[in-house]
Every structure is written in C-alpha cells, then in structure tokens.
Amino acid sequence: MSAFACEFTGACRVGVDRRRGLTGAARVARYATALSLGLLLFGTASALALDASQPTDAPKIPLKHFSSAEQALRAGLDDLKAGDAKSSLEALSYAAEAGQVLAQWKLGSMYARGEGVPRDDLKAYHYFEQMIDNFNEDEPNGRDISAVSNAFVAVGVYCLGGIANSDLKPDAGRALAMFQYAATNFGDPDAQYHLARFYAAGRDGLAKNEQEAVRFYKLAADQGNANAQFYVALFYETGRGGLAKDVREAARFYRMAADQGNASAQKNLAWLYAAGGDGLATDSNSAIRGKASRCGGEWRSEGCRKQ
Fold first, then answer.
1. pLDDT band for position 298 (50/70/90)?
2. Alpha-carbon distance 8 to 228, whole Å?
3. Any residues with CB less than 8 A from the CB of 132 and at least 6 apart, and which?
4. What SS3 class is residue 228?
5. pTM attached to this predicted model
6. Residue 163 pairs with which residues in a beta bridge?
7. Per-domain boundaries in the chain
C-alpha cells in the first residue's frame, strides 16, 4: 500500500434540510432527494475560507450601445479576449441583467478567479445562484447546459465552506443537493467527484457507502477528472469499495492522474514502481522503477522524462 494517507472527513454541519436554499424551486429538491445515497470534494470539505469583504453591489448597467442582450454578450466576450476588461464588464453586465445565461456564467467565473476584476466570491456566488434560480429544467437551452452544470457545482463548493464575512455559512446539505443534481442530470464529472467524496466519507446524515463512491469516482475518472482517477487507483490499490485488489489497475489510474499533474498520483505511482510486487517488479520494469523512485513528485518534469 502506498505511503499516501487519504482521510475521508467532513467539515459542514450535519442534518441540514437538503432542499433548503434551493432557490427556484422544489424541482431541484426533487432530484436531490431522489438519490438514496450521497458524496464530497475531499471528504474534507473544500472549506477554503472564501473572503467576501469587498463591496458586493452589482455593477451599474448603462442602457446604451447594445441593440440586444445577445449583441452585448458577443461584445463582452470580444472585449475580454482583446484585454479590455472595463468594456467587457460593462457589456457582460448588460447581457447578464437581460438574462443571458452565458454572460452570468462568465461574470461569475471572472469574479471567482479575479480575472479582469478584483476577486469577489460573493458576487461570483450571486451570478451562479441566479443561473440556478432561472434554470428551466422542462425546456433547457442546449447551449447553456454546460454553463448551468458548472454553476450547480460552483454553488455546491461555495456551500461547503461558506464565504467569510458574509451571510453564506457552510451548508453541506445544500452542497450535496447541488452535486447530486449536476451529477445525475448533467453527468458533470466535477459533481460526480464531489458526490463520490460524500459517499466515501458518509456525511450529512448519509451512511458511508464506498461502492457508490467508487461508482461515481469511475464515472468522473472516465471523463478525465484527475482527482477521481487518483481515488479509483487508491481503491484498486487497497482492494476497497467492492474492487478486488489490483496493483496493475491502480498503477494505470495513477498514471492517468499523474499525466495531468496530480502530485499525489505522481508520488503513489513512484512508490508502486519503487516497491515492486504484483507483477510490477519484473526485470523489464527495473528502469521505470528506478525513474519513479528518483523522480517522486517530479514525475512529469523535463529532467525526469530524460532519465
């Protein structure tokens, strides 16, 4: 077994009504409660204390220049690409106010990352929440589905840790509802990963269920989620979650994650080859075992590849 120790813990309060705060409707709660199981982001809630100390008043929208919300959206994206953050913010804000989902998503992403604007998690949350609130699941716009799915995940992550200096407090129940909805209705790999973490930890009133955790980890891993690939490898390495212990499969999934820069996967893969066993310690593998042992967490570095 690798030296990396993985802990499935929780950081938000337990026993919260999963439907509470699902703005826009019981329609989301319908899906959230339909699952009999649950999940999380590192079992340790990704409870980074997000700071909302900056002003959060929505930007003023000048009613000029744009013949339509769609035209404002295009102008805002073009301005952003050209590096004109001020004009982009003005145009995207106009489009978002008029209900353009992609403009709301872009503004939420900009404020969440501090891209062209000062980082403001509360403003980001506001835009993502607006997308969820206005989502029509009966007549969804195909163009907007990816952005809406991303908004469900973003709101879920904010609910895990809350936002410092704001009224948004940690709410694992609502986070779970967001991840369940996006995982089951959109097949979102990030939501599937977070949901798997809830199952692996057994939290917010949900019984621990490693088999369901593995199922959602695999769904996310198949879509390229590196964190999920790491955990699939870990379950293969330890023979848990209904999986037979299989070091070769563990190495395969560790390699997938390692190739995407996952440092934990890089270290575990190096450890597997250095330790050998279960078919990995043959003479034909001696070179790569030595490389893994020397490189450790620098698995993808230029120097390591040339060894």
1. low
2. 14
3. 22, 23, 24, 28, 148, 151, 152, 155, 178
4. helix
5. 0.72
6. 50
7. 1-56+120-223, 224-307
